[in-house]
Amino acid sequence: xxxxxxxxxxxxxxxxxxxxxxxxxxxxxxxxxxxxxxxxxxxxxxxxxxxxxxxxxxxxxxxxxxxxxxxxxxxxxxxxxxxxxxxxxxxxxxxxxxxxxxxxxxxxxxxxxxxxxxxxxxxxxxxxxxxxxxxxxxxxxxxxxxxxxxxxxxxxxxxxxxxxxxxxxxxxxxxxxxxxxxxxxxxxxxxxxxxxxxxxxxxxxxxxxxxxxxxxxxxxxxxxxxxxxxxxxxxxxxxxxxxxxxxxxxxxxxxxxxxxxxxxxxxxxxxxxxxx
Length: 276
Fold this sequence. Notes:
Elements: H1 4-19, H2 24-29, E1 35-42, E2 46-47, H3 51-61, E3 66-69, E4 76-77, E5 82-89, H4 90-121, E6 127-129, H5 139-148, E7 162-164, H6 166-172, H7 175-185, E8 192-196, H8 199-207, E9 212-216, H9 220-230, E10 235-239, H10 247-251, E11 257-259, H11 262-265, E12 272-275
Parallel strand pairs: 6-11, 7-8, 8-9, 9-10, 10-11
Antiparallel strand pairs: 1-5, 1-12, 2-4, 3-5
């Protein structure tokens, strides 16, 4: 998901934004020959994510910077853990510190939050998945973090899967008309998902042979009724009002997928620090 060319291009833009025309603090406090050594430490428990991105920030600034990791993406970390050692030219370590931390704190935060949700599902087979409610131009990093945290991925963008929502149904005239029009035009490789608010819509989606049926903001009893009605004829997704306290109950209804924007949009950054 995170190829080197993609990471490098993104980081260069982030560094341009942060450094601007120069780091006027570091430029006047350091010499080119100065070296320093520091460590990346965890202040809290969580799931580590973003090692390659963190390292690439420093490598873009100076290939003389060496980063040694003691944990890999997906590892559980605790407060006080030494995650990595960074050694090299002081100027470039100080210059890249904030950008590197911005990436790894955000990514580790999402991985940690995702892991909480998937763990809360417990014995049930449902998978927690993300949504398109992501930070503009940071989606690849956020989705990678969801995967590292033990979650699964929904469509990456609008061209991955046809998803018929309420406004699409209104525009097309009916759910059936929307599905028929899409089947005439999309590739055989694409699936069709339909968002349903009622049992009647679920029945219509089944009649249209939708590949995925989303149960949107339904009660638990209503979800159970719909899961029984669908009876494995389509993938069943639940969405709406998904929290850490409700996700297990939702999973108990028998749905296959539980989508939530919270694992990304509401994930706090993980408190990691770079210390000399």
